[in-house]
Structures are given as C-alpha cells and as structure tokens.
TrEMBL record, chain A:
Transmembrane segments: none annotated. Keywords: Flavoprotein, FMN, Monooxygenase, Oxidoreductase. This is LLM class flavin-dependent oxidoreductase. Residues 33-110 form the Luciferase-like domain. InterPro entries: Luciferase-like_dom, Luciferase-like_sf, SsuD_RutA_monooxygenase. It comes from the Bacteria. The keyword Flavoprotein applies. The keyword Oxidoreductase applies. It comes from Catenulispora pinistramenti.
From TrEMBL, chain B:
It comes from the Bacteria. This is LLM class flavin-dependent oxidoreductase. Signal peptide: none annotated. It holds the Pfam family Bac_luciferase. Residues 36-342 form the Luciferase-like domain. Keywords: Flavoprotein, FMN, Monooxygenase, Oxidoreductase. It comes from Catenulispora pinistramenti. InterPro entries: Luciferase-like_dom, Luciferase-like_sf, SsuD_RutA_monooxygenase. Transmembrane segments: none annotated. Gene3D superfamilies: Luciferase-like domain. Coiled coil: none annotated.
C-alpha cells in the first residue's frame, strides 16, 4: 500500500500575497501561517501526512506542528526534531502532549544520523519504561519516526509539477519497490488538492468517476 | 499602574470540585460518563481531548477579564509549549504564560520556539522561568545539576536566549553551560518583542538570579508580612527592581460561610496526610513553616483573615489561598496591591467554572480602586 506525504517548503521562499488593484476593496486578513492552508489541503485530500522539516530559516517545527495538528483531523504531522534541541526526556514529554491532543497523529522526522537515532532511542525508552513518562501521558504510542533517506521512502520535489508528472514520477519509483512517497510541495494548496484528486486514485488502482453523459 | 490578572490553566486535568479529589477532566482518569473532555457520549468515546478542555478554560478566562493564563509544568502534567502552540490560534488578546525549566531545553531552541509563538500570537507569549524543586523530580528529567548551580545555569540560559534573540547571526557565547557561535534568529522570526519574564524561586540563589532577569518576581501566596519581607529582599538584591506577582488560589462565594463550607466538605473526606516526596524547594518549606504546630482542624490553618494554608490537601499545588466572600477576597487582593503586587495568577477548582465566577463576582470589585 503506497502512501503519499507532503513535505512543507521553506517558509523563506513563500511568495508575497498578490497585489490587488487599488480600485478593488481589499478585505484580506494579514498574512496568516503560510503552512496552515497546505496542511488543511493535505487533510482534505486524504494524504497520509504533513512533514514540517527543520529549517534554519523558518519557524520552529514543534510549535508549527502543534498548530497544524489542532487545525486538522486525519493527517499525521511530522516535526523535524534535532537531537540538540532538548533532553530526550523533555522531547518525549512535549511529544506526549501532542499525541494526546491529536489522538496519536504526531510524528518525528529525523536526520538519518547516529546521534538522531540515539536521541530517539533514549526518548522512546523513557516513554515506555515504568519509571519514565506517567502512564496517562504515554497512553498513545511513541510518535511515528521517519528517518530522512530511510530505505523504502522516496523523496521527490514536485513543486509546480502537473499531476500527471507527479503520478509518473511516483509510478516509476513504485516499480522500483518504494512505498512511502514524500513530496516536497510548493506554496500553492491547489497543488495538494490535485495530488489527492488525480494522483491518489492512480496509486490505489482506482479510476476517477466518469462524468460522461 | 494597571494590575495584570492571569488565571491558571490546570495542566494536570481538573477536579470536578475542590472537595472531590482526583481529576475527572482532561483525560487523566478512565473515560467515564460524566468525565469532561474526554468522556463518553452515547456509550462511545466522545473524541475530545485535554486540549479541548483547556481551550474552554482559556475562552472562559479570556471572556471573564483575565489577561492570560499560567500554563504550569510538572512531570505529571501536559506540556505548556505544546499547549500554547496548539491553542494560540483560538484566542485574540490572551497571553500564554509558559512555565519551563531552562535545564531541559537548549536556549537556541527556546528562542526559536518563542519567536515562532510570538509571531503566531502577535507577541502574547510570557515566560514563567522555574529552576526546579530539586530531588527525584530533577533526576527524572535527566537533570543532575545541583540547586544553586541550576540558578547559575538559568541565568546563563537567559543571557544566551536574549543574545540569540537580537543576535542577527553574530551572537557569540562561550560559557559554563552553553556555547553558541554566530547565533541569531532567521529573518522570518526576528524582530518580535521579547517575552516578559516571571521568575520564581524563594532561595537566596533564586532571588539573586531574579534580580538580574525578572520583569516580575513571582511568589506563591504567603502571610502578607512574609511576602513583604521577601519582596524587600528581592528589591535589595536587584540592580533593576522587578515588579511583583503572586500566585493565589481563590475560594470565593456569596457568603464567607458558604466558602468555608466547601473547605469543610473537602476536609471531612481527607485521608491521613501523606509525606510529600523529597525535594529542595525552599518555597515549599517556607509554606509549611507558616502552619507548623497547627492542630488537625482545617480552621487552625487559617493564619490571617481569609488566608488559609491547607489548599494542598484538597488539590495538588501550593498551600496558601484566600477563602471568603467576594468582597473579602477582593479586599485581600487590594491589600496585596498596596504591598506592591503588580500582577496576580489566580486559580480555583474547577478552573473552568471558577474562572467565570471570579471574573464575574470578584474582579469587578477591584475596579475603581486605583493605587
């Protein structure tokens, strides 16, 4: 079963809002979180997850992930977690609350290095051992962990690509044995809706309903 | 000077009353009919979470006149950063006072999380910096730093955090606990107001550190003379004296008798007092000394008019709070303002209903009483 995830783009690359002509009444709210619309699009489109990668030039992933989890219903939200940010125990504690608040939809997106793996191991042990997190806080499983570059995961930059091209790129890698597709998207939520509508049916061997007649 | 009044958010769930121990709210007990967020609805889990309950407390306090909420942090509670980040978009003017222990977070990470929250809220993040009650709790977090060293580390942590905040990629730090090269926030996060700092701690080491960093020195409620002495000690050690804040449990009812009846009901159902787990909190030792020698009656713990030192027996938390009718409680708060208190963090159990009660019946009695 193939699953499609989106990886949020760099916040620094977000285009400014379109400039409306003076003669138009402009009641648009001031720019809100640029990632909110992308995460909601992934949620509505039935994608598996939203990845908030660690980005030195962007907002902090745990804070962003918390907001995205609260605004969505189904997607898993992976936050880029770096081993230097906190003690592994405290990272587990923060994560436990995000799991509780989201019904177990929070995950960690880690660099595939030994330090990150050790950090996750210590945090996971703390989560599970009897003298670690209180049972009520760790009622959900430890956050799902995705290691960047792990085998079986394909990472594709699909920003600006048409759905056919996305489907073709995924198909090619699926034939090579990949099952998890992490798609770095652009800032247009429309791209994500189209992935849901045009790419997911192809992957599940479904066909879009015919509107003929 | 305006007085800022916050309302505590119960991060450990919430009791359904002060006289019925144990959380029924927030998912800290079995999900039963009558449990609030989460509970059961028509025989099935209702899908609510503790965040939904806290969101309701936040709404109640925002609508009732509180400027924000203290989100405390203990081993058994949900996490304040996770909570503030989850609920930020659901409020407009409400300030999130995030309690945290510097020992568990890197200051660069704290700067990035804070700036992200400041951006999301338009500058509504407030810090409650705690350096820990010590003992087994600190070891549980993986922190082996000793008591006085923790305050030195807190001091250095805040130096680094402030340096990174304005560093623009040029902040350098080589200290005892932290090392940062070319520190600063990215353009997307820079330029936000630095959060106000509420600083807690009753020991000399804490007061020393507060003197350097605190916008507000925050104390649990104590007998008023003791509080005044503590504030004087902080002023004496501060190159720039902070403002003062007090964390107070409120039990206010239309009549004083009704308020004490709530205590009486809770007291009647108490088991024998268990020894508190070891730790090195100076604030806790002080609060116990104020009621040393009291007999077993709840009335013996009233050390001054409306000032009662037995709240810790009825719910987790500090000992002292105010018990009385609405006017008496408002009058005691006014006396504290006259002592130099600039901000309050009030609380009541259950936090949801009591936020609206105190907002409706006690806060209006403070208005029109300028210092």
């Amino acid at each position: 079963m193939s699953r499609v995830h989106i990886v949020l783009p760099s916040a620094a690359a977000a285009p400014p809002p379109a400039v409306l002509p003076d003669r138009l009444t402009d009641l648009r709210p001031s720019a809100s979180d640029p990632f909110l619309a992308l995460a909601k699009a992934a949620d509505l489109a039935g994608l598996a997850s939203v990845v908030v990668p660690y980005d030195r030039q962007g907002p902090e992933p745990l804070v962003t992930a918390a907001a995205l989890l609260r605004a969505t219903r189904h997607v898993t939200v992976f936050a880029g977690v770096q081993p230097w940010i906190a003690t592994p125990q405290y990272a587990a504690k923060v994560s436990a609350s995000l799991q509780r608040f989201s019904g177990g939809r929070f995950g960690w997106y880690l660099d595939g290095d030994a330090e990150s793996a050790a950090f996750a191991q210590t945090a996971g042990d703390f989560w599970r051992r009897p003298d670690g997190l209180p049972e009520v806080l760790s009622e959900h499983a430890f956050p799902a962990v995705v290691l960047a570059g792990a085998s079986g995961t394909a990472h594709l930059d699909v920003a600006g690509l048409e759905p056919d091209a996305v489907a073709a790129a995924i198909d090619e890698r699926r034939d090579a044995g990949f099952a998890e597709f992490f798609l770095t998207v652009g800032h247009d939520p429309g791209e994500i809706y189209r992935i849901g509508e045009y790419v997911l049916p192809v992957l599940s061997q479904e066909r879009a309903p015919s509107h003929a007649g | 000077m305006p007085v800022d009044i916050y309302w505590r958010i119960a991060m450990e769930g919430d009791q359904k009353s002060l006289y019925e121990p144990g959380s029924t709210r927030g998912g800290f007990a079995d999900h039963l009919s009558g449990g609030l967020a989460p509970g059961r609805n028509r025989g099935a889990a209702d899908g609510f979470t503790h965040a939904d309950y806290m969101a309701e407390v936040v709404r109640a306090s925002e609508e009732s006149g509180f400027v924000g909420g203290l989100l405390p942090s203990f081993a058994h509670t949900d996490d304040p950063w996770a909570t503030a980040a989850s609920l930020a978009a659901e409020t407009r003017g409400y300030r999130f006072m995030v309690a945290f222990q510097p020992g568990f977070l890197h200051p660069v990470q704290a700067a990035r999380m804070s700036a992200t929250l400041q951006k999301a809220t338009g500058g509504r993040l407030v810090y409650n910096i705690i350096s820990g009650g010590g003992g087994p709790q600190q070891l549980w977090w993986g922190d082996t730093t000793g008591h006085d060293d923790r305050y030195a580390r807190t001091s250095e942590f805040l130096d680094v955090l402030k340096g990174v905040w304005t560093g623009e990629g040029t902040f350098q730090h080589e200290g005892r606990f932290y090392r940062v090269a070319d520190g600063g926030l990215p353009a997307a996060l820079a330029g936000q107001p630095f959060p106000e700092i509420f600083f807690s701690g009753s020991s000399p080491a804490a007061i020393q550190a507060a003197g350097r960093h605190a916008d507000y020195y925050l104390s649990w409620l104590e007998p008023f003379e003791a509080l005044a002495e503590k504030f004087a000690a902080v002023r004496a050690r501060s190159p720039r004296p902070p403002k003062f804040a007090v964390r107070i449990d409120i039990l206010a009812r239309p009549t004083e008798q009704e308020a004490w009846d709530v205590i009486r009901r809770g007291w009647a159902g108490l088991p024998a007092e268990a020894e508190r787990e070891g730790g090195d909190s100076v604030g806790w030792r002080r609060s116990q000394d104020f009621t040393a020698g009291a007999d077993g009656s709840f009335r013996a713990l009233q050390v001054a008019p409306n000032l009662w030192g037995g709240f810790h027996r009825l719910r987790p938390g500090p000992a002292f709070g105010l018990v009385g009718d609405y006017r008496q409680v408002a009058d005691r708060l006014e006396e504290l303002v006259a002592l130099g208190v600039d901000a309050f963090i009030l609380a009541g159990v259950p936090h949801l209903e009591e936020a609206r009660r105190v907002g409706r019946h006690v806060l209006p009695l403070l208005k029109g009483n300028p210092r």
